[in-house]
């Protein structure tokens, strides 16, 4: 039965693929086609979505620069303000430098120079009691010269001053008030009183008339206010030290040599 069913099934015709080839072109056709390719006009149609445009390299550089600038602005939004502030500070510093230079040229400030003109010693003050230790009273006559061309000084009273012999205090006192103009030389007094301390032997012998050479150190601390015209600047300190070699600390001592130094903190 199966064989009969199979035999009864009609057979389908098989299809055969046949490839048709164009006949080879002849020599005349070749020459005609070459002539048309040489002198013909060609129109090429490309789909719109397949047209690409390549930008020049300059555009890529510009895009990179804008991108970097945007990043910098995002990182530091106050960069412009900071530049303006720095410019203003530099301008102010430049103006201050110029003004300071003009003042230095016109004023020509200089430290005052001190000289010991005279030293009077009184070894028996009026208030001394009989049998007590001598308390020498030293009276220094000082001369101060201001070399500044346009700057004066106002000295305040109450500065400290001492006389020492090899580090040992002999007498102490205070400085007086003083006003000094530019290119001016002024004389003033420094009165120093001795203490109850035991004096060195060489000082005691000199107070009694010994002719030994005595090295003394006079140290004074002044509070001064520089003045330029009518403008008074802030107060500052001035330290003066004078190394003096004298003979006989009786009445008027003889000054053999001296060297004074001034340290002014402007």
UniProtKB/TrEMBL annotation:
Residues 1-33 are annotated as: Disordered. GO terms for biological process: defense response to other organism. Keywords: Membrane, Transmembrane, Transmembrane helix. InterPro entries: NDR1-like (IPR044839). GO terms for cellular component: plasma membrane. The chain crosses the membrane at residues 84-107. PANTHER family: EXPRESSED PROTEIN (PTHR31234:SF68), LATE EMBRYOGENESIS ABUNDANT (LEA) HYDROXYPROLINE-RICH GLYCOPROTEIN FAMILY (PTHR31234). This is Late embryogenesis abundant protein LEA-2 subgroup domain-containing protein.
